[in-house]
Write a structure and sequence with these properties.
By secondary structure, the protein is of the alpha/beta class. Among the domains are: about 70 residues, Oligo-1,6-glucosidase, Domain 2 (Oligo-1,6-glucosidase, domain 2, Alpha-Beta Complex); about 190 residues, Alpha-Beta Barrel (TIM Barrel), CATH 3.20.20.80; about 55 residues, Immunoglobulin-like. Helix content is about 35%, strand content about 20%. The chain has 17 helices and 24 strands. The strands form 7 sheets. Strands 1-3-4-9-10-11-12-16 form an 8-stranded parallel barrel. The chain is globular. The relative contact order is 0.11.
Length: about 550
């Protein structure tokens, strides 16, 4: 299919998903939408990405300010504190919702009134590119579609999964421990609705083609509202078939590919990012043959980096990075250490021992964090994600503030060097510690990593040159500006992982060599002579060797 036109591919994918007759009736509906979209959206052949790209991950109300709606407060923070160091802002779901901090959406077309309105999103878009979340596996039980389902009314009556409760669903892969099916009283009697993530998040049925069309309309709406990137939330669970795992099914991949085809026609510069917090091989399957997602998360990176830095040895990180295949042409990685969710443990499967996973979970608990678990088919449970800010997760019991800061800054600098685009959760930029008060208030483990800063509280920290928040924000943005001036950090430049020292994580991109000392000792190492782009932690000795400080980082432009 790859050599065919996007229009032809869409028609063939519709036949793979539905019957021939349904596919033939769907194409005119989609074709008319795409023709209208082409008249509105940018059709220029701009590059998908450059070395200047970096991404901020934030809630619309992570920054608050007296007398200002949160989206305007976020806009001011981004312009004043980040400038052009981070040119793209991922605003986590900013739509009306009923639970899960925005991921149980009750209206996909409106902005939450307490955040602002579409004009405030547009104001942010004047200075920065934007990423939106397309939450398409499920919606809120309060959404109009589900209310129609409860009343047996169109169109929602056929929008949701409601299998007979006697159906054998034991093979379904679960990310949570609650029952998979939730009973709801409807005008047609009690129905048991598929609820992967919570009883308030009812799973949509994409085997109904009207659901697909509805979400393609939302996809195009997001593009019209300024999205340069669109994140497909929880996409791996999209298509359900009893008797299977209902995870990563072929139909799910076809839906993603179809969305890619739609964007290639309507808005070729818009990038699809898939969110699949699963082991690496499953995760990168969403590249397809270069015809699916443009970008996937590097989900093993956060736990591997945490594992290595807490041990002072990057052995597992090095092994993973060496085995990493380059992404297909026109695709790249989303390199991050932290997000609004916890630190996923499933990506560690096959990379470190189960004992190491349990040890890491115990260490997070000892530092005040929490651990969410998932249920296995045999009824047992295992760690699914660690709940802590990345800043707190990297504090060892004997650390002084300086050592803790250096370890944390190493963690935030390393993703800048890997092939792909680096992304930074707002609480990494502000060195936010675990929000224990917030977690106690909501009773939700994930709140520990979702603090809402008041500018009146944050500004004094940023104005104090010795505070962790000030040091981290300044250091990260300074290094990003240096990165933006180096063409060898372009996302398409391949990476090599050279063997230099067992305590060192090194990555080579073109003529650039990035070095990261995971140990608490200085390293004197033989590396090529060149210009040191980062000089705080490294210097050449008279012997010609390079000395790299404990937990030090440097970039060398080799001659």
């Amino acid at each position: 299919m790859k050599d065919q036109s996007p229009s032809t591919r869409i028609q063939q994918r519709l036949k793979l998903l539905y019957s021939d007759s349904i596919a033939e009736s769907l194409w005119p509906r989609l074709s008319s939408r795409l023709e209208k979209a082409k008249e509105v959206f940018d059709q220029s052949a701009n590059p998908l990405w450059t070395e200047k790209d970096a991404i901020l991950i934030t809630y619309g109300d992570s920054i608050k300010e007296e007398g200002m709606v949160p989206l305007r407060a976020l806009d001011r923070f981004v312009r004043e504190e980040l400038g052009d160091a981070i040119p793209l802002v991922h605003i986590l779901p900013f739509f009306p919702y009923t639970s899960d901090d925005g991921f149980s959406i009750s209206d996909y077309e409106m902005v939450r009134e307490d955040l602002g309105d579409w004009s405030d999103v547009s104001a942010l878009h004047e200075h920065h590119d934007l990423m939106f979340d397309l939450v398409l596996n499920h919606c809120s039980a309060s959404h109009a579609w589900f209310q129609q389902f409860l009343k047996d009314e169109e169109p929602g009556r056929g929008y949701f999964h409601a299998p007979d409760p006697s159906t054998d669903l034991s093979e379904v892969v679960r990310p949570r421990t609650h029952p998979l099916l939730t009973p709801f009283e409807t005008t047609a009697g009690t129905k048991h609705v598929w609820t992967t993530f919570s009883a308030d998040q009812v799973d949509l049925d994409f085997s109904n083609p009207d659901v697909l069309v509805a979400f393609l309309d939302i996809l195009l709406l997001f593009v019209r509202r300024g999205a340069r990137m669109i994140r497909l939330d929880a996409i791996a669970f999209l298509w359900k078939v009893p008797g299977t795992s209902s995870l990563h099914l072929n139909e799910t991949h076809e839906v993603v590919k179809l969305m890619r085809d739609v964007l290639e026609i309507a808005a070729p510069g818009v990038i699809l990012l898939t969110e699949t917090n699963v082991p690496h091989e499953e995760n990168v399957s969403y590249f397809g043959d270069g015809d699916e997602a443009r970008m996937v998360y590097q989900f093993p990176l956060p736990p591997l980096l945490l594992h290595g830095l807490r041990r002072g040895k990057p052995e597992a990180l090095n092994a993973w990075a060496k085995a990493l295949d380059a992404p297909p042409e026109g695709c790249t990685f989303f390199n991050f250490t932290s997000s609004h969710d916890g630190i996923g443990m499933r990506p560690l499967e096959g990379l470190v021992s189960h004992e190491d996973v349990l040890e890491l979970a115990d260490q997070i608990r000892a530092g005040g964090g929490k651990v969410n678990e998932r249920s296995l088919a045999d009824g047992s449970k295992k760690p699914y994600e660690l709940n802590a800010t990345y800043f707190s997760a990297l504090k060892l019991p004997d650390d002084d503030e300086s050592t803790h800061l250096k370890r944390f800054l190493l963690s935030q600098t390393l993703p800048m060097c890997l092939q792909g685009i680096p992304a930074f959760y707002i609480h990494c930029l502000t060195a936010t510690p675990n929000d224990l008060e917030g977690m106690a208030r909501t009773g939700q483990n994930r709140t520990i990593n979702r603090k809402m800063w008041q500018r009146s509280e944050l500004d004094p920290l940023l104005e104090d040159p010795n505070s962790p928040a000030s040091i981290c924000l300044k250091t990260i943005t300074t290094r990003l500006k240096i990165r933006a001036s180096e063409e060898d950090f372009h996302p398409d430049v391949p990476q090599e992982i050279p063997d230099i020292h067992e305590d060192l994580f090194a990555v080579k991109r073109g003529k650039l060599l990035a070095l990261h000392n995971f140990s608490s000792s200085s390293l004197d190492i033989q590396v090529p002579q060149g210009e040191l782009l980062l000089t705080d932690d490294a210097r050449y000795l008279d012997s010609g060797n390079l000395r790299l400080d404990p937990l030090g980082v440097t970039w060398i432009r080799c001659s």
